[in-house]
Every structure is written in C-alpha cells, then in structure tokens.
Amino acid sequence: MATLSLRNVKKSYGDTAVIHGIDLEVAAGEFIVIVGPSGCGKSTLLRMVAGLETITAGELFIGADRVNDREPMDRNIAMVFQNYALYPHMSVAQNMGYALKIAGRPKAEIAARVAEAARLLQIDPYLDRKPRDLSGGQRQRVAMGRAIVRDPAVFLFDEPLSNLDAKLRVQMRLEIKALQRKLGVTALYVTHDQVEAMTLADRMVVMNAGRAEQVGTPLEVYERPATLFAAQFIGSPAMNLVDAVAEAGAVRLADGTRLPIASAAEGPVTLGLRPEHVHPDPAGPLAVRPTLAEPLGASTLIHGTLDGVARDFVASLPGVHREADLPETLRFSVPAGAIHLFDAATGRRI
Amino acid sequence: MSGMVEKRGIGHWLTHAGLILGVAFVFFPIWLAFVASTVTQADIVRPPMPLLPGPHLVDNYREALVSGVNVPVARMMLNSLVMALGIALGKIVISLLSAFAIVYFRFPFRRAFFWLIFITLMLPVEVRIVPTYEVIAGFGMLNSYSGLILPLVASATATFLFRQFFMTVPDELAEAARVDGAGPMRFFLDILVPMSRTNMAALFVILFIYGWNQYLWPLLITTDPGMNTIVMGLRQMFPSGDDLANWPVIMATSILAMLPPVVVVVAMQKLFIRGLVDSEK
Fold first, then answer.
1. To bridge B158 with a disulfide, which of A27, A118, B95, B212 should be the other Cys (CB 3.0-4.6 Å)?
2. What's the total number of domains in chain A?
3. Residue B149's CATH number
4. In which domain, by residue range, is A142 found?
5. Do A73 and B181 count as a contact with CB atoms less than 8 A apart?
6. What is the per-residue pLDDT across B190-203, written as a single tens digit (0 to 9) for each?
7. Domain range spanning residue B269?
8. CA A152 to CA A150: how far, in whole Å?
C-alpha cells in the first residue's frame, strides 16, 4: 500500500503532445478510476505509471520515491492487461509465480503465495491448466492472481473487463471492488465505461484529449460536473444540453420558455438537464413533443423535441409508458437543483 | 440408401487403387536398391535382375559399414550426422537470436540489417562458392567439421520465419514480462523460445534434411576421405576407369544414407505438421 502522485505529468511523441500535464494525488488504499473516450490518453497515462512509456515531463512518485526513470519491475507495481497477457505455454500456477521466480524467491514460498492468491480468487482447481483451457472469466482471475501474488504497492488495471460478456462484467466488477477493499492496495483503473467508473471509484478522473476535465468522487462528478464534457460523459442516458441565454435570474430558451436560476449569470449559456431529473407536470414550463419511447422495464426513456432546439431531448420516467399512449405534448417541470449551467464559450460550469 | 454406400465404396476403392499405384511407382526404385543390397555382385550383373531379396543382407551391410569402398560408411554417416545436426541447430539458434533482435530492439540501421539478411536469400551456397571456399581455406578449415558447417549456418529463411512468428506474439506479453521483472534475455528464453517450439521442430526437420543432403560443398572442401559425408561419399564409390563397381555395397550404402532423414521425419512428424499448420498462441 502506498501513495501515488503525478505532478504535471506530460507525454509527447515528437511534436505531438498527447498528455498535457496531469496532476493527481492518490491516497494510500484509494481506488482511482481514469475514465474517458478512446484516444483521450488514459491508457497512455496508465502505461506511464507502469513504466512501459517514458514520461516526457513532470514527476511521478510512488510512496516517497521518484520513479520516473525506473524500470517497471523496480516500481513495485502490478498490472492487469486488457487481453490478460497470460503466458500461453505456462500453467496457471507458473503464470502467477513467474514474477516471484524471477525475483529469486524460494520455491516453497512461491507455491504458498500462489496457493493463497488462488484460494482468494477461487481458481485453485485450475492451477495445473494452461490458459487456453480456461474461460474468459477464469483467465481474468488468473491475470488478477498474477498481480496479487506480487503484493505490489499499486495495482494498475487497463480496461480489464472489456473482453468479458455483459453479465460476467458486472460480476467481476463487484469482485474487483471487494478484492481491492480486502487487500487495501492503492489502485489505478482505466476504463471507457462510465458505469464501471461510477461503481468502482473512490474518486474518478474524467479525461478528454489528454487533459483531466474533472477529478472527484463519482457523486461529485455526477451532481456537479465541472465541464460540458464531464456532464455528457458521466450519467446514462447522457445529459440533455440546450442552448439558452441567461438574463436576470432566469434562462430563456429558443422558444421563449423561461426557467428561473439561482445564479446571476448573463449572456449565452448551455443549459444541462439530466433525463432522470425532469418531472412530468401538466403545468411545467418545458413542452416536449415525444417521438419515441424506449421501455427499460423499471423506467421508460422518452425521446422527443423541444420547440426551437435541434438536438433530441430525452426524459427518463419511472414505470412503463407505451408509445401509443403518449400525448402530443408532454410538459415537464425542472427542480431548481437539477439545472446545470455551462459557459457557452468555454464549456465550464457556471 | 445401400446403393449410395456401394457407390461411395467404389470411389473409395478406386481412390485407394490410385494411391497404391502411386506409392508403388515411387517405391519401386527403392525396392530395387534394397534387393540389390541383399544379393551378390554376380546376381546383379546376370540378367534378369532379381526382384526378391537374397540371403546376403548381413554380409553386404557389414562390409559397407565396416570397410566401405574408400572409407567405412559408418565414418561417413557420423560425418553427415555431425554436419546435418550442426547446420540445423546452428541455423535455429542464429535465426532465433537475429529475429529477436530485429523484432524487439530498436537500433540504428535496423531496417538496413533486416534487408541485408533478406537479400542473402538470393545468394545460395552455389552462387558464392568460390569466395566462400577462399575464406574457409584462409581460415584453415578445409577437411574439418567447422568448415563443413559454418558457411551454411546463417539462414535468411529461418530468420524470416521466426520474425513473422515473433510479430504475431502480442506486445502485451512482452510488457507483462517487463512488469514481472524479466530482462530481455529472460523474456527470450522463458517465453519466446518455448512459444516457438513447434516452429523450431518444423524447421529442424527441414534443415536436417537440407544439411544431410548437401553435396557440392562437402565435395569441394573435403579431400581427406575420412571427412567425406555420405551423400558425396556415395558418388565417390562409383568406379572410375576400368574398376569394377561393387554394386551390393553401394546399394547398401544408399539405403543407409536414406535412413536418418526418414527417422527424423517419422519421429518428428506430429510436431512438424503442427508447426506448419498452426502456431500455438
């Protein structure tokens, strides 16, 4: 268990900068999820922490040690790869014990530690099998076992669940969380899946185009997104964004609808409304023409249009609503706390 | 229903008849050689040629192995074995190492080196035989095992084959090994080499036969009969001028020369086919 700090860490390939200075302080035992779309630089950042990519500028500390120029093996980290990267010709036990074997540990100790990790992950029946004889979920466990056996200061996960089917992914997600809590090891976890980020993270880093848009607990990011990007990326279905003008304690939409706001902002803004935060209300100010209903069972997603707004508007209503039963116009009220305002020019939260 | 089975039965037998005919066609000369190695010189020269084995098998083979014509065949077989093994194993080791360097390391002129190796494909022994002879003679390696093996030991084909295989090994495996603390040579020995074993087996079979069948190069650099290899030595047994050919012994030698490649192919058949058909990943 150790702290991890990134101080203005940058990466460029030749003249192309891909990471534009990331600052992050990770407490011992904390579970940090780095989330972002593909190509945002999240995997590169993780690989820089692992020592698989060089750090162009900035400093990286694990515990009290500056590890910028250390080889991966000297950083006391363990990594779980997206494709597991198990050695195909070695048995499960050999895969898990390989790092210890290289470190020159006695055979008895290796066997004991492998057995302990295997018991923890419930893979003890497969220790003599080859990776090709295992299912995806079992391989995933072996890859985690290989990381656990080393008893590292930091766990690094590079999209470890993306090759599993949906059901198994949910189950392994829970297991990873439980395991990390039990072992209390600092973890850095990269994913493009916002649900994984929300459920696993103690704190998450929302990344976009090589920058950290927001660092915070999942609920902070959900309730007070710092930028338009974070607002759209976290939450499903994504937040509705409507162009509006702020004036004298209210925002005016394109069709003239006025919504009261608590802020004193003036000028063009982007109004953010989460689909699950608008309430059906015959007297509400928002008038939506429904075009499509997607029943999810527990709730229904109503897609529609707002007058004068080009983008689709989505509302999530509890219970079942049949498309045929929907009126021509649905009216919604918006609680004051559900309104997010962003500067139309910079995309920053107001 | 039964008619269909019968029809397929006829096709089945026809196919087999065709195959048996083909095998007989290929096998007949070998059979004749075998028959000739079991009879006496007199039986061979008196027509018609015998088609069934005679009683002198043990005598002829003993004569070939122990005394031969110029030099005992046992000695020539040992020379051939050393040469074929040296070439096959040497080629595999060198190709593995050079493919490892080309795929996993970034060094100046990496591409240039790769193409340099690749271009040597166009220069088989026969093309460079005079300068190679000059070099080997200069090193004093005529009539020696190193002279027989070294000029043939570099292989662009094998290097290329291993390069292609290494390129299909996922990068994540090399990274996992780095995180686990394996240095480059450790990764090579613990992970790449075991993963290449089917490729190595397939290559070994091909290269062993290549080395065993070398004719021109041993002919050129071995003047001492004690260093003859069996394939060239066989040719040396043919009489020159008015000497009489000892055909039973020559035929026994032919059969003996065929055995080691056959043994290698049969013994490694399973691995060989697996190495050519699928690579284990």
1. B95
2. 2
3. 1.10.3720.10
4. 4-226
5. yes
6. 999 999 888 898 88
7. 68-277
8. 5
The answer to whether residue B18 sits within a structural domain is no
How far apart, in whole angstroms, are the C-alpha atoms of residue A99 and residue B180? 4
Confirm whether A212 is domain-assigned: yes
DSSP A349: B
Nearest-CA distance B115 → chain A (Å): 27
Q: Per-residue pLDDT tens for B152-179?
A: 888 888 898 899 999 999 999 999 999 9
pTM: 0.80
Average pLDDT over residues A291-301: 90
Longest dimension (CA), chain B: 77
Q: Report yes or no on B86 lying in a domain.
A: yes
Asked whether the beta carbons of residue B176 and residue A50 sit closer than 8 angstroms, the reply is no
Q: Answer whether B178 sits within 8 Å of A73, measured CB to CB.
A: yes
Q: How far is A45 from chain B (nearest CA, A)?
A: 15
Q: Which residues in chain B touch residue A99, judged by CB atoms under 8 angstroms apart?
A: 179-181
> Are the Cβ atoms of A98 and B281 closer than 8 angstroms?
no
Domain ends where: A202, A226, A250? Answer: A226
| pLDDT score recorded for residue B120 | 79
Nearest CA to B218 out of B87, B67, B94 is that of B87
Any domain includes A129: yes
Please report the pLDDT score of residue B1 as a whole number. Answer: 44
Q: Which of A107, A50, A53, A116 is nearest to A81 (CA)?
A: A50
**Contact status of A91 with chain B (Cβ, < 8 Å):** no
pLDDT in tens, B66-95: 877 778 888 888 999 999 999 999 999 999
Whether the predicted pLDDT of B280 surpasses 50: no
A250 and A195 in a common domain? no
What's the number of domains chain B is made of? 1
In this structure, which amino acid lies at residue B221? Answer: I
pLDDT tens digits for range B220-246: 888 888 888 888 888 888 777 667 778
Domain endpoint, select from A226, A253, A273: A226
Q: Pairing between strand A267-273 and A330-333?
A: unpaired
